[in-house]
C-alpha cells in the first residue's frame, strides 16, 4: 500500500511531469521491485484518458548478470524489436515516464568496453527515437523512488528500513510533496520563480561564461549563438507543457560546441551506468576534452567520452545556486537527477535543440551548423561549489557577475 | 533467498526443461513479483554457457488494468516490436522458459471480446513464431512458482503464508524435487516409465477412442492417420531433448480433425485467460464443437472456440490415469499445467505436428492435408473421472479396453 504522500507524488509525475493527454500512450520504465508505484501511475494515467500504458520493466541484477556473463557479441547488436519499441511508440506520440531507483553501483566492475559498445550500437540504432526525445516531440519525465540499495548508499549509517524512509523524506522535500494535495500548486509557483531568473539570463544574452573556484576550476565556455536559457519545464512540439525532471532547480542552455577552454574539476562523484566516478578532472581546448582523469571509474569515463565525435564536447551549461533546496538536504544522492539539481553543472554530449531559437524545427544539419553538439550520449557532471564564481561576458565584451560565492549575483 | 529445493527446481527447469545449450539464447517470462526465481534461472543458464538471457516480465495487475481501462482500439493491433521480439529470437534459436504463477482470476470480469480480439490479431501476427514453437524448432518449458493469489485460490482455508508453503510442497512433489540433488535422475526414470506405455499405445495404433463415464461423457474421437503418441519429453528439430511441461504425466497424440462425435463433460474447472470456467459441456459433430455451455465463464469460452475456424475442432488427445501423483495431491490447482496432468484431457485448437509421423518436416498445408487441426489457439480441458472408461478401436474394428475405472487397462 502506498502512503498518501507517495500517491500524491505519483499523481504529480503523471499529471504534471509527463502531463498525460487524453488518447495518448504512456511508456513507464520501472524496476520490477517497485511495481506498485508503476501500477499507481498506470491507474492515474488511465483515469486521465491514457490510451494504453506500456511497461518497460528493468531489473538491476538481470542487467548486471548480462554484462558479466553474456557472450561478447551480445553487446555489438541492437535487436530490431527494441528499435521498433522505442521508435514506433515515439512516432505514435507516446509520453515516457522513468521511475528511477537504481542501485548506484549495480554495474560496478563490469567491463567498460561492453557498456561502451552497447551504447554505440544502441545509440546508432535508436537515433530517430533519441532525436525525437531531444526535440521534445513527446513529453518525458524522470522521477525517483526510494529503494534499498540506493537508500543504503545515501545513508550508509542507517539500518535499511530507516534509510529507505530517510530517502523518501528527502525526495518528498525535493519534489515539494507535502501530502496535502498542494504539490501541483507548489510546482507552479516554483516553476514561475525559476522562469524569472531565466528571463533575466535570456535578456543578458551572454557571449560566454567564465568559471573559477578554489577546487581548481578555471574555465570559459561560449554560449551558442541565439541560445535560449530554459527552466521550470518545457513544452512539446505539439504544445503540451511538461516537466522533464522532477525535481528541477536548474536554468540551462546550450554552449557553442567549439567554445570551451580551460580546466573543470567535478565537485561531486558522478554515478554513470551503475558505477561511481570520483574526482573527475577535464581539460578543454576549443570545445574538446583533451584530458580526462578520475580517481575511480576513469576507464568508464574515457569510454564514455570516446563513444562518438561529439561525446568529448559539451552539450549543456546549467546554473544551480548553492542554496538549492536539494543542496540543503545535505546529502549526496549518487543519482544525477538529484545531484545535478544541487549544483551548477555541465553535460558532455548531445545539446538540446530547444536551447537555441527555432532549434526544435531545425534538421540535425541545421542545428549542427548553428553550433550545437551532436552525440549519442548526454552526461551531466557537477562543478558547483560554495565559492564558485561565474562571470558573464556580454556580446560587447563587458564582464559582469552571474554567480558570487556559489549563489546568483542577481 | 531461495531454499535448496527451490534452487534445485530452477536448475531442473533450465537444465532439463529447456536443456539450455552452449551459445543459445534463453527467453524467460516471469511475473515481476517472482524476480528472484527468474534471476536464479538466469544464473544457471549463464553457468551453462547461455549466450544471453532476455527477460519478458509479466505483471498481472498491469495486464488487468489494460484490459479494463485501455482504449478499445488497443486490442485490434499487434505492435511490430512484439512480432519482432517473438519471431526474431525464435529464428535465432532461443529457448523459452515460462515461469507461471498467475492469479487464476486475474482477468475476472474483463470483456471477453477484448481478450478474443487481441488473441486474434496477435495470433495472426505471431503465426511464424507459433508454428516454430509447435514444430519444436526450439526447446520450451513451463514451470510453476507458488505465489500469493494462486496459493490462496488452491488453499482458501489457509493463511496466505501457509498457503504459499503448502502450494510449494505440492509443486515439489509433482516435479519430483526432494532437495537432495536427485531431481534429474528422478525425471529420467519417470520419463522412461511414461515412454513404456507410450510405446504400447503406438503399437496398438488405434483408429479411434471411445470415452464414457457417469458424468455424461459419451464421446468418440478418431486419431490422426499415422499418429504418434508422445510422452516424457520431446526433441527439437535440431535434436536437443527437452521437457515442455514440468510436471508431465500425459501420453498424448493428435486426433483426426473431423473425427470427434458425441458429448464431453469437463470434470474440472478450466482456468483460461485469468477466468475460471466451470462445468463445461461440449457436443461434437464430425469434429466440430456444435454446442458449448458452462455454468460460469461461458461467454469467454464461446469467444475462445470462435477465434478462428480451427478453434472449434480438437488438436490433442491426452491420457492420464486417475492415480497420477498430481491427482493424488487431492487439490484442484486452477492451473492447466497441473490440472491437465491430473486428468485425461483433450485440447481444442492447434495440433502438434510431432504427433504424426514426419509432421515436424511438413508444411502447414501438408499437415492440414494429413488431418491435423490448425488454429491460433490451443486450450486443454479435463474430462478424466474415477469411473472413466476408454475403449480403443483398432484399425480392423476390434474393441479393447484402454482405460477401466479411470486407470490404464494395461
Could you describe the 3D structure shown?
Two copies of one chain form a homodimer. Chain A is α+β, with helices and mostly antiparallel strands. Helices cover 33% and strands 25% of the residues of chain A. Chain A contains 13 helices and 21 strands. The first copy, chain A, has an eight-stranded antiparallel beta sheet. Chain A has a five-stranded antiparallel beta sheet with strand order 7-10-16-17-18, with helices on one face. In chain A, strand 14 (281-285) and strand 15 (288-293) form a beta hairpin. The first copy, chain A, is globular. The interface between A and B is medium-sized, with 32 and 32 residues.
How many β-strand stretches of chain A? Answer: 21
Largest sheet of chain A: 8 strands, antiparallel
Mean pLDDT of chain A: 96
Oligomerization = homodimer
Total number of helices of chain A? 13
- Strand order within the widest sheet of chain A? 15-14-11-6-5-19-20-21
What are the defining features of this structure?
8-stranded antiparallel β-sheet; 410 residues; 5-stranded antiparallel β-sheet; alpha+beta
Quick take:
The structure is a homodimer of 410-residue chains. Chain A is of the alpha+beta class and 410 residues long.
